Amino acid sequence: RQKWRRWCESPLFNYPVFSRDGKYVYFSDPDASMVYRLRVGGNKIEPVAKIDVPGGLKQDDFWYWTGLTPDNSPLAMRDAGTQEIYALDVDLP
Question: Fewest Cβ atoms closer than 10 Å to its Cβ: which of 8, 34, 53, 87?
């Protein structure tokens, strides 16, 4: 038809990714720590998973990254910390 059409009015489309069969678009809402999906051509947003991990979601330069495994299970980066402390003993000749 070569026409644009809005699927939904949600402003929360972070890291959208198609399901493996192409029937759904999955996306995340970092404020709610949720992953949702939207059926292609539909307008009903369905909750898929709540991401409740210690330390919250890992924020990159843009937002909180989420994705899908090959079986459409949600993936998220876990914030395991950004600072580590190391001690080195060096014996130089």
Answer: 87
Residue 75 pLDDT more than 70?
A: yes
Question: Quick one: tokens of 14?
Answer: 């972070």
Check pLDDT > 80 for residue 70.
yes
Is residue 45 within 8 A of residue 8, CB to CB? The reply is yes
Beta bridge partners, 39, equal 24
Neighbouring residues of 65: CB distance < 8 A, sequence distance ≥ 6:
15, 57, 58, 76, 77
- Using CA atoms, how far apart are residues 10 and 74, in angstroms rounded to an integer? 20
CA dist., res. 37 & res. 7, Å (int)? 12
Under 8 Å between Cβ of 26 and 65: no
Closest alpha carbon to 76 in 10, 14, 5, 25: 14
